[in-house]
Amino acid sequence: MVDVFLDSRLHDHIREHDWRTMNVRSVMDDYSGERLVVLHHCPAEKIDFEFLQTVTLPQTWEMKKLVITALLAKIDAGDKNHPIVKQVYEAGFASNAARYNKFINQLRILAEISNTMLDRLLGGLVVSERQIVCRFSETRMENLHYDLDSNCDDHEAFRLYINLDATPRIWAVSYPVSDLIAQGGRRIIDGIPEDLKSEVKLERLTGRAFGGWNQRATERKSPRHMIFFDPGDVWIVDGRSVSHQVLLGQRVLSVYARIPIAGNEGKIRSFRERLAEAFTRAASVPVGAETAQVGYYTPQEITASPNLKTDWTDVFGGTCTGMVRRFDDHGLVESGDKLSKTS
Ligand SMILES: [Fe+2]
After folding, report:
1. Which of 104, 140, 294, 299 has the most CB atoms at less than 10 Å from its CB?
2. Cα separation of 162 and 111, whole Å?
3. Which residues have a Cβ under 8 Å from the Cβ of 241 and sit 6 or more positions away?
């Protein structure tokens, strides 16, 4: 069951289908129509949620996105000394072979389930790459953003998630990108050349609308539907097309498929086309008549992002220090002695 707490300033762009009876075309129309789609009754019986709940991998950048397919390939090739294999075995399982082997077996099951779902949902499309990733570490309080995929003009991106944790995964979603641009009008597209690559346009739109990564501390203007995905819930969403932020999540499976435009002509409406249409609509909304309720940050107002790769362990780990950590637009504030003095 998924709980959605709706924000009345935003239209309801969440849809649901039942795996057992769904019309795949209708699901994919919702997906490419910039909806977040929940799929009920997916074939996930073989997932041992109780066991996976006992697994915690180190809070490191490498473990943030553990590519199952790559890990299994290294294990199957007997590469026990590969740094990632060693990190999982030693830091994740304290070299406990029985638990480690059970985990690897679950990863094989997750890969099998992912492939079954991709086969059905993307049947009839040419797919050039599949990536199955799990996270057994914590993600806490991202800023609202669109996913930036490099060189995304020549392909579409498909993303599916399963909450593997025993607690809800908490997201917020805001404007679909076409709505943001069309409703943000000339003010949101000002100075963004139409011939830029889509991901560069998207990066500028993200900053203008929601600020930089650090502004997660203070950005409160944008409307948000709050979503609680329960254990075992499955959903698909194109993160390039629907702005989103993870507020809190622990264990999750995320599946990605790359769908090249070449070979799929006439079957999909490309992201590039959708952006171009939205830019045309935006041009007819003069500055002052825009209705998207976002920050419209100037470049000077967008604070620099931290280096997520190097800062990940400190900023996204270290959460059980017994101290209060404070964040502002520049990131983690140096902690001083803020304990109240008692007389
Ligand atoms: Fe994202």
Report:
1. 294
2. 12
3. 34, 146, 176, 177, 178, 271, 274
Beta-carbon contacts of residue 50 (< 8 Å; ≥ 6 apart): none
Residue 261, amino acid: I
- The sign of the dihedral angle between the CA atoms of 113, 250, 24, 119 is negative
Which residues share a beta bridge with 204? none
User: For 269-324, what is each residue's pLDDT tens digit?
Assistant: 899 999 999 999 999 999 999 999 999 999 999 987 667 777 777 777 777 778 88
Residue from 263, 273, 257 nearest 28 by CA: 257
Q: How far is the CA of 99 from the centre of ligand 1 (A)?
A: 31
Going from the Cα of 98 to the center of ligand 1, the distance in angstroms, rounded, reads 34
CA distance 180 to 12: 14
Q: How far is the CA of 168 from the centre of ligand 1 (A)?
A: 17
Joined tokens for residue 76: 């199957």
**Residue listed under structure tokens 């849809």:** 15
Report angle CA 35, 172, 216 to the nearest 5 degrees. 130
How far apart, in Å, do the first and last CA atoms of the chain sit?
Answer: 50
Residue 342 predicted with pLDDT over 90: no
Span from the CA of 240 to the centroid of ligand 1 (angstroms): 8
Q: What's the chain's Rg over C-alpha atoms? A: 21
Give the C-alpha separation, 209 to 50, whole Å: 40
Q: What does the pLDDT read at residue 336? A: 61
Give the angle 336-313-84 at the CA atoms, nearest 5°. 165
